[in-house]
Automatic annotation (TrEMBL):
Keywords: Membrane, Transmembrane, Transmembrane helix. It is found in: Membrane. It comes from Danaus chrysippus (African queen). InterPro entries: AA_transpt_TM. This is (African queen) hypothetical protein. The lineage of its organism: Eukaryota, Metazoa, Ecdysozoa, Arthropoda, Hexapoda. The keyword Hydrolase does not apply. It is a multi-pass membrane protein.
Length: 465
C-alpha cells in the first residue's frame, strides 16, 4: 500500500507497523549468521543503519506502548483480584509486573544483540528467535527455521485466542442488555454467538488495513469512556479496605496469575515499537521508555483491580462492565460502548494472525487461487473463534486459560530461553548468573502454564458440569 498505517492491540498482542506489513518479514537468508566475533559485533550498529521514513519520538513511542498495553484487559483485573485477595493481589500485581517487564527487556535486548551479530537493522519476534538459534550453539542451528515457524504460529493462535475472548465479552454484554429489556427472550449463548458470526465473517474479509485502521481511534475513545464510567460506579459506593479478605485459598492463585499476565503482557508489541523509534537506545535502560510505561501500566492495573474487587468482591465478573447495573443509563452506555469497541478491536486484531497464517501458507497455493484461499482461511479462523467462544462461555475462565497457556510461554518462557541460547557461547555472566536467572524465569513460566491451564480447565468443567 502507498500509505503507512499502524495498528495497535488492546490487550497484549502484536501490531502492524510499516506499510501495514507484519514485522516478521526479514528472511534469515539475508542475515550474517556466521559472524560471532566480539569486535565484529561491536563494529555494526543496527540503530545507525535503520532507515525509517517516519521515526517515532520517545514521547510518541511511550504513547504507542501505553495505548497498546492499556486496553480491555484492565477491565478483568477485579476478577483477577478475587482469586488472590487484597494484599496478595497488590503485591502479586507488582511482582508479576516486574517479571513481565524484565522478560520484555530480555526479548528486546536479545533482539538488539543478535541484530549486531547478523548485521540487520531490526528484527521482529519470530526473526529474533530464528536468528538466535541460527547463531547459537551448533546443535541448535538446524532448528532455526522450524523455531521461527513455530513462534509465528504460536503468535497467531495467541491472538486468535484473544479474539475468542472478545467474542465472549461481546456475547455476555449483549445478553445482559437484551435480558434487561426482554427478560423472556429465550436466546441462548450459542444463538448469540451464531448471530455475531455473520457480521464477524463480513468484516474479517476486509484484507486492506486502510479500511480497518480508522476504527482504531473510535474504539480507543469508547474504551476510555467505558473506563471512566466504570470508575464512577466503583467509587460511588466505596467500601472499606478490610471488607474483603487479604488472601484466598492458594489453589486459586494460578487463575490470578494467568489473568494478570493476559491483561498486562504485551510481548508482541514491544519490538515493533522499538524498531520504529528515532532513538531506539532510549527504549531500554533507566528510566527508559519501557520502564516508565510498565510502571504506569502496573499502577493503573493494580488500582483498577483493588478498587473493583473492594466494590464487587467475589461477584466481580471477567469484565467489570458486566457488574454495572443495566437499568441505569450510564451503565447501559458503558455496555454498549464496550460491545462496539471490542468488536472493532476484534476486526483489527484478526488482521495480524491472518497475515501470519497467509505468509506461512501462500507458497502452497497456486497464484490464481490466492484470493479464494485467503477468503476461505479468514472465514475458517473467524468461525473457529466463534465456536471457541460458544464452547467456553465463562469469560474470566477463558481469560485465565489464554493467559496461562499462550502468554506465559511467549511472554515468560521464550524470552528467557532465548537469552540463554544467545549467551551460551558468548558468556553467561559471573557465576553463570544469566543461566541461573533465566532458568528460574523459564521454570516459573512453565509452572504458570501448567498450573494455570489445569486450574482453568477444572473451573470450566466445574461451572459447565
Amino acid at each position: 500500500m502507498a500509505n503507512s498505517y499502524k495498528m495497535k492491540e488492546f490487550s497484549s498482542t502484536a501490531v502492524i507497523t510499516e506499510n501495514a506489513v507484519f514485522p516478521s518479514t526479514i528472511s534469515i537468508n539475508t542475515m550474517n549468521t556466521k559472524c560471532k566475533e566480539t569486535e565484529i559485533e561491536d563494529a555494526y550498529d543496527p540503530f545507525q543503519n535503520r532507515k525509517l521514513e517516519h521515526p517515532n519520538s520517545d514521547v510518541r513511542s511511550f504513547a504507542n506502548l501505553l495505548k497498546s498495553s492499556l486496553g480491555s484487559g484492565i477491565l478483568a483485573m477485579p476478577a483477577a483480584f478475587k482469586n488472590a485477595g487484597t494484599v496478595v493481589g497488590i503485591f502479586g500485581t507488582v511482582i508479576l509486573g516486574y517479571i513481565c517487564t524484565h522478560c520484555v527487556y530480555l526479548l528486546v535486548k536479545t533482539s538488539q544483540d543478535v541484530s549486531r551479530v547478523t548485521k540487520v537493522p531490526s528484527l521482529g519476534y519470530a526473526e529474533t528467535v530464528e536468528a538466535v538459534f541460527a547463531t547459537g550453539p551448533q546443535p541448535l542451528r538446524k532448528l532455526s527455521r522450524a523455531m521461527r515457524i513455530f513462534i509465528d504460529w504460536a503468535m497467531a493462535f495467541t491472538i486468535l485466542g484473544a479474539c475468542a475472548v472478545y467474542v465472549i465479552l461481546i456475547e455476555e454484554s449483549v445478553k445482559q442488555i437484551v435480558d434487561h429489556f426482554y427478560p423472556d427472550s429465550g436466546i441462548t449463548t450459542t444463538m448469540y454467538c451464531l448471530m455475531f458470526l455473520v457480521p464477524i465473517l463480513i468484516f474479517t474479509q476486509i484484507k486492506n488495513l486502510k479500511y480497518i485502521a480508522p476504527f482504531s481511534g473510535f474504539a480507543n475513545v469508547l474504551l476510555v469512556l467505558t473506563f471512566l464510567i466504570c470508575l464512577y460506579y466503583i467509587c460511588s459506593e466505596f467500601p472499606s479496605f478490610d471488607s474483603q479478605p487479604m488472601s484466598v485459598e492458594i489453589g486459586k492463585l494460578p487463575l490470578f496469575i494467568g489473568t494478570v499476565i493476559f491483561a498486562m503482557e504485551g510481548i508482541g508489541v514491544v519490538l515493533p515499537v522499538e524498531n520504529t523509534m528515532a532513538k531506539p537506545q532510549h527504549f531500554l535502560g533507566c528510566p527508559g521508555v519501557l520502564n516508565i510505561t510498565m510502571a504506569i501500566v502496573v499502577l493503573l492495573y493494580m488500582v483498577m483491580g483493588i478498587l473493583g474487587y473492594l466494590r464487587y468482591g467475589d461477584k466481580a465478573e471477567g469484565s467489570i462492565t458486566i457488574n454495572l447495573p443495566t437499568q441505569e443509563i450510564p451503565a447501559l452506555m458503558a455496555k454498549v460502548f464496550i460491545v462496539l469497541a471490542i468488536f472493532f478491536t476484534y476486526v483489527l486484531q484478526f488482521y495480524v494472525p491472518m497475515e501470519i497464517v497467509w505468509r506461512n501458507t501462500k507458497e502452497k497455493v497456486s497464484q490464481k487461487y490466492h484470493n479464494h484461499a485467503q477468503a476461505i482461511i479468514r472465514a475458517f479462523f473467524a468461525a473457529l473463534t466463534v465456536v471457541a467462544a460458544a464452547s467456553l462461555p465463562k469469560l474470566e475462565q477463558v481469560i485465565g486459560l489464554e493467559g496461562a497457556f499462550f502468554y506465559s510461554f511467549l511472554g515468560l518462557v521464550a524470552p528467557s530461553l532465548m537469552e540463554i541460547i544467545f549467551c551460551w557461547d558468548r558468556g553467561l555472566g559471573k557465576y553463570n548468573y544469566i543461566l541461573i536467572k533465566d532458568s528460574i524465569l523459564a521454570i516459573f513460566g512453565m509452572f504458570v502454564l501448567v498450573t494455570g491451564v489445569m486450574q482453568s480447565i477444572k473451573e470450566i468443567i466445574r461451572t459447565n458440569g
